[in-house]
Design a protein that fits this description.
alpha+beta, YefM-like fold, about 20% strand, elongated
C-alpha cells in the first residue's frame, strides 16, 4: 500500500465532503483535518492504523484462568467455596 499526504482539509469542508475524504483515504492517502488553521485530526487507511495499533492481547484474567475446556467442576467448586466464605471473615492475628 502506498501512503501519500493529500491536501489539508478545513473541518467544515471535510464535513461537507466526507465521501471525498474517505475516497482519498481508501486510495492510500493520509488526510489532515484542521480547525481554525490548526491540525486536529488525521484520517489514515485502516491498514496503516492496524500496523501501528495492534489488537490488544488477552486480559490478566484470561491469562490467570485455565483454558476454556479445562475449567470443569474443580473451578466451579472453588468459586462456590469463595462465595460461601465471603460473609464470614477469618480472624487475623496482628502483631
Amino acid at each position: 500500500m502506498v501512503t501519500t499526504h493529500a491536501p489539508v482539509w478545513q473541518l467544515q469542508e471535510a464535513k461537507n465532503r466526507l465521501s471525498t475524504v474517505i475516497d482519498a483515504v481508501e486510495a492510500g492517502e493520509v488526510q489532515t483535518i484542521t480547525r481554525h488553521g490548526k491540525p486536529v485530526a488525521v484520517v489514515v487507511p485502516i491498514a496503516l492504523w492496524e500496523t501501528t495499533h495492534p489488537a490488544p492481547g488477552p486480559s490478566l484474567l484470561d491469562l490467570l484462568l485455565p483454558p476454556e475446556g479445562a475449567r470443569g467442576e474443580d473451578l466451579a467448586a472453588v468459586l462456590e467455596e469463595l462465595r460461601r466464605n465471603e460473609s464470614a471473615p477469618r480472624p487475623v492475628a496482628l502483631g
